[in-house]
Amino acid sequence: MAFLTLLLKRLPWILLVLALIWIFISQSGIKVIPESTETQHSIVLERIEDLGKLELVKYNFQEITELKKISAELDFKYFKLKNGPDSKAILISKGEAAGCIDLTKITKRDIFTENDTLFIRLPNPELCYFKLDLQQSQIYDLKLGYLSQEDKMKFIEELYLKAEDELRKAAIQSGILDRTLDNAETILKPLFIDIAEKEVQFVYQPSPSKIDIR
Asked: CA neighbours within 13 Å on the CB side: how many for 156?
């Protein structure tokens, strides 16, 4: 009973103190910010992984490949005796090569925020694939000499493999990897801005050592 009486006597002072605290908070602009969890990076990373290996540029090629096998010969010093006629073929082919960036290689360490900008470190561009269009490729001037059926098949297979390798070299020499990076800015950046809902800047990996195109 004594406690209740004491509380009633001091209630006006308690209310006054609470009112003064409320006025101070209101005038100073102090706001109570609820607890939150930052999950932006995880969400962005999951969306990036869903995109996987993204093709950003495609080159189309037409090429002429010639393969010639010189028949073995016996050298008798004053004259030479060939074992048989030479084998040769010319392949006129069409094909394509594509450059891409493998987004599954991006980790949490490659995504960071500074001020209001999200930075994403992109993997190096790579050649997704290079292939001949067999339906639009044709062999001309085919001379197989006295090769066995098995050797003829090997010769033609070697011709196509050589043409495919020349396609790979042509794609790299024509700058397909640089073009892939250029298109990353044009195509990927708006996509990531939509995902992150903030400004996005790309950071690039150190340039890889010169690609061996032999």
From this structure: 16
